[in-house]
Automatic annotation (TrEMBL):
GO terms for molecular function: pyridoxal phosphate binding; threonine synthase activity. This is Threonine synthase. Residues 2-80 form the Threonine synthase N-terminal domain. Pfam families: PALP, Thr_synth_N. Belongs to the threonine synthase family. GO terms for biological process: threonine biosynthetic process. SUPFAM superfamilies: Tryptophan synthase beta subunit-like PLP-dependent enzymes. Gene3D superfamilies: 3.40.50.1100, Threonine synthase, N-terminal domain (3.90.1380.10). It comes from Winmispira thermophila (strain ATCC 700085 / DSM 6578 / Z-1203) (Spirochaeta thermophila). Its EC number is 4.2.3.1.
Amino acid sequence: MRFVSTRNPKDVVSFEEAVFRGLAPDGGLYHPVERLDLASLYERLGPEKGFVDVSYEMVRLLFGDEFSEEEAGRLVERAFPFSPVLRELTGSILLLELFHGPSCAFKDFGASFLASCMEVFLSRREGRAVILTATSGDTGSAVAQAFHGRRHIDVVILYPSGRVSPLQEKQLTTLGGNVHALEVAGSFDDCQRMVKEAFLDRELRERCPLTSANSINLGRLVPQSFYYVWAYAQLKARGDRPFFCVPSGNFGNLTAGVYAWWWGMPVRGFLAATNVNDVVPEYLSTGVFTPRSSVRTLSNAMDVGNPSNFERLLALFEGDHRRMAAVIRGERVTDEETLDTIARYWREREVFLDPHTAVGVKASERLLERERGVAPVVTLATAHPGKFLEVVEDALGIRPPLPPQLEEVLAKEKRAVKIPNTLEALKAFLLDLWG
């Protein structure tokens, strides 16, 4: 498989190059050149296949020229000691639970696969890398957990002091080893600015092998297609072609599912479920894309007013609104509807939903009311409700239980280095780390 920038079709790179570059030099995002036909894979898959088995098949077919079969096997086993779970919520709605990894969010799948890929690539040449990333909470915890203990890699995570939840801060700051947490005196925007300035600093680039693990990296995006394929395999014996509902903010998760369809997976379609930050549903209904400042909501990981991965969707559908709208529908859900959905499913079924999953469930209900023949709708459950204790408690009056991995981290000691919000402070830390 080869990849090109969304802004320059002549910039053709390998998967390894795309992984370590992250963003293309022209500012575009890497996406596949070829439309691979994986129909033979989908025909032979069935519910007996575990997630690691499905992931191995996908790696072998997509990246067979980059990893040997032995390397592919080791890669997926190291990347995925956890698995998605498919559960029935109602007779027509299934939940694809993606929160059984170390940070209890769907981002574990992409981050862990990226870490395993980098580890393989670096070990071949005895190279090293310094992962530099900024976080407002959730992404950083997934990256920290995924890269902890990886050979040849150090991780430096910047987070805004006093602006992440106590639980998120513990997930970032209690690992130690090759994971270094920097508590920045400032905002998330300051953290992001400092990271961008570091990547542009000539001395740092020459002396320190910096790379990124942010959400636009292709190495985080492609593996998210694997759990769509696994879910399809689980339902195949029932003769069902699923409709996928994806709670969407930056649209990487939805893009990964659309890739699986593009490679031949039989599905009925996709539903992009957003909160009031609905620029993509608006585009799907009108053909006009109008980015705007994001609005703060209860489903805060989806508060994105100009989703970067929409550029990949436009490239895949060659800018054709009608073609995209034939595959993807959009739905907007308010905070009031989100709280009502959380309360209703606890009251009627004793099921806890986090606010992002609740947006997806409400959108799925509307789809089923409006259109016949779309069931089953597989709604992606993107985070454990325990990660959003305050929102769930506000809806129910009780707190959901924490999973063991979150309980354990609360008891650990925080280890972070406090720095001012300047490039000079970050640069000094990096050069000292790298020696």
